[in-house]
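Recall the central idea of this unit: under ordinary conditions, the amino acid sequence of a chain determines the structure it adopts. In this exercise we apply that idea directly, starting from the sequence alone.
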Amino acid sequence: MRNIVLFIVVMLGSTVGCVTPSGEWNAQGFEEKTYGWKASYPPGQARLLGPDWQLDNFYADGGNFEAKDGPKYVADLEEDENRDGKIDSSETRKVFIFDLKYVNARDNGVIWVQTRSMHPLDASRDLEVLLGNYADSLAGTGLYENGNVFGLSTLKARSFTTFVGDRKEFRLGPHRALRAMIELAQTERLRAEPNSRAAKIGVVLTKFHYLEPIDAQGPGLLATDLTGTVTEGGKLWKKRTAVLLVGYYNDVEHFDRELPDFDAFVSRLAWPIPRPVVDPSPPPAPVTPAP
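Accordingly, the structure predicted from this sequence is:
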């Protein structure tokens, strides 16, 4: 059975409502309009990954790709925006779980991309902290269903143990990024077999600014609402911070075989849409070149 690691807290069994994708396909590849990044086709090709990889979260409808919107692809995202300790009805919204998701036809490999905006109070979190939160969230009994990069959930039980290694800093487009390997082991089995591993996950994390449109003529726009805004193209925008996770999951036996495909995919991510040039991450120590 193929298990998928999710980047957000998902309320399983929720009713799918109206949600509109912000990514679209064109002759060059896939472009995420809200956050301004794209994944380009390899030169001379018209697919992001090789023939062994099947696009899972879109389906072909005539000459177009349409986003799948069933319960495996759309979920409720709860965010305590005002930080009052409770989730109001306005703080629950339906989102697409994946920007992109590919599954391998030969083994249990999965490659996915997820982008989420960050609450202003979380925007300064270091990439190393986000990585640690994400790895720790995978140790609960809801291993794949409850992966959460922000560390806001509480683990009630730990049926898996995670090991994080091979951390490397590099530049992903114009942004500082962190790459790491997470090994998953069944906690009970570790007692008898200390070297046992169930699966591996390769992750790449980066933070960046993006522009969120503001209706300057809208009712009730206060001076405090203009904090952190910029003017570009004659329009008023709110400067927000987003975090992007690119992941690759596979069983231990087949992980290394598909790893070059993941590396090549990551290398083709770029940010072509103009955004503020200030990097939200602090300057890194001497940069380790990308693999």
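The first helix runs from residue 127 to 137.
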